[in-house]
Design a protein that fits this description.
5-stranded antiparallel sheet; globular; about 180 residues; disordered N terminus
Amino acid sequence: MNNKDSKLCPCGTERDYETCCAPFISGKSLPPTAEALMRSRYTAYAISELDYIKKTLATASSKDFDPVAAKEWANQSEWKGLKIISTDLGKESDKTGTVEFAATYSHKEKTYEHHEVSQFQRNGKGEWRFVDGESHTHEDGEGHQHHHEKTQPMVRESAKVGRNDACPCGSGKKYKKCCSA
């Protein structure tokens, strides 16, 4: 990682990397919410910090993780952006949470959008971990290649965050001026 002091964090918060996801990826602090963990995992893919991806998997999910293939894919991809679509629970006081997002990346000269509804939970130490995700990936543009994984519907346990509600990331801003922007 070269000097990231003046670079915006890849996760899309409009904050410097050093004050956004770097403390989580380096292990200096823990993500306080499921969304913060999800954003930091996106950033870890973008900067090829795959040890962090493995570390933030729930125990049951880690057996399916292939670090060699993941690192190869991350290194061969150009990460273009992350959009949080919705969050359900996953706040500092919750034990579980759901984050729906879309990540855009280019791989082998094609651009893709990966849409996922991810499930997170706190482990026995209170640390957020990625449990599972329901996703589909499609090629942007004229090609319409689709890749679908799992097909279970998402069940929302709480109300969707409104544009004028406080942003669930904990910034203190309205959702429309923060993570929804």
